[in-house]
Design goal:
There is one protein chain. The chain is an alpha/beta fold. The protein has one domain. The protein is built from 10 helices and 9 strands. Strands 1-9-8-2-5-3-4 form a 7-stranded mixed β-sheet, sandwiched between helices. Strands 6-7 form a two-stranded antiparallel sheet. Helix 1 runs antiparallel to helix 2, helix 1 packs parallel to helix 7 and helix 4 packs parallel to helix 6. The protein is globular. It starts with 10 loop residues before the first helix and ends in a 13-residue tail after the last helix.
């Protein structure tokens, strides 16, 4: 089973969080989230069952522990959304971030070739992009632009300008030209390698003890343009704190298999360390 290309949630739910955040603050928004996460845990069966399988079968949690971990995963997903709204609505100064490998971004910026930031749906890279602007130049995030338009327009109306640009994947392949142009300008390209939609070309690799499908497209991007690649993740470590990590940059020109294997090994390491913050809420192993 593949991801359906849409972010879970509806416009009313996003409105609740934004209103609570702006009117009553972060703590109250987190309080409301307790009940919102419980609703999704009880009534969104496909997502719940997929996350439960991840904890129970792939990580070996007991039956009850896996269900509790599933609820915590939903709760932390909501926290990441609320934090994103808070930061994009002018609350950036209230958040802090620590760096592991931040110097690598500075090195890539000075290289003059731009760089590829390979990430995944662990933690919240959008929050990282807002908080880490001082370490790098312009960031371009590659996205499947399939989210509900009403939600996107509402969130954008309530938020300040994003600290990154979005390059949407298009059927006419115009995104390839936009990626090349961005790298030519010494900008960064951020792409996620752990999610695909129906019809996308995939490659199977071992992940947490079982074969799983990974999208080929992001790794074609990472290996085609001759730019250094770093694997990076942004993990929530406290109420208003995040930790950014990055690996030493490496050139993978035309070495797609090597790039995918290195990425999957790093992703597994990060997911094992922070399982409650891996937000792939679909049947990843099919």
């Amino acid at each position: 089973m593949s991801w359906d290309g849409k972010t879970r949630g509806n416009l009313f739910g996003h409105q609740i969080f934004v209103i609570a955040l702006k009117s009553l603050g972060l703590s109250f928004a987190y309080f409301i989230l307790i009940f919102v996460a419980l609703y999704f845990f009880l009534f969104v069966g496909k997502s719940r069952n997929s996350v439960f399988y991840f904890f129970h079968k792939r990580l070996g949690y007991s039956f009850l522990s896996a269900y509790w971990a599933t609820y915590i995963n939903f709760f932390k997903f909501g926290q990441n959304l609320i934090d994103k709204f808070a930061i994009m609505s002018g609350g950036k100064s209230k958040y802090s971030t620590t760096h592991q490998g931040g110097q690598y971004l500075e090195e890539m910026t000075k290289s003059g070739t731009g760089g590829i930031l390979m990430s995944g749906h662990v933690g919240n890279f959008e929050v990282g992009a807002q908080l880490l602007g001082q370490l790098m130049g312009k960031i371009n995030v590659i996205m499947q632009d399939e989210d509900h338009e009403k939600i996107k327009k509402y969130v954008e109306a309530k938020s300040e300008k994003k600290a990154f640009n979005i390059i949407a994947i298009k059927e006419d392949l115009s995104h390839v030209i936009n990626i090349k142009n961005a790298l030519t300008k010494n900008e960064f390209i951020c792409v996620h390698g752990d999610r695909f939609i129906e019809g996308a070309e995939t490659i199977e690799l071992d992940f947490l003890g079982k074969k799983a499908k990974f999208p080929k497209g992001p790794f074609v991007i990472a290996t085609r343009f001759g730019a250094p690649v770093t694997f990076n993740f942004v993990i929530k470590t406290g109420k208003q704190s995040y930790q950014f990590s990055a690996t030493a940059p490496k050139l993978y020109s035309r070495k797609l298999d090597e790039c995918m294997k290195d990425y999957v090994a790093k992703l597994e390491e990060v997911v094992r360390a922070h399982p409650h913050q891996w937000f792939n809420h679909y049947n990843f192993w099919g």
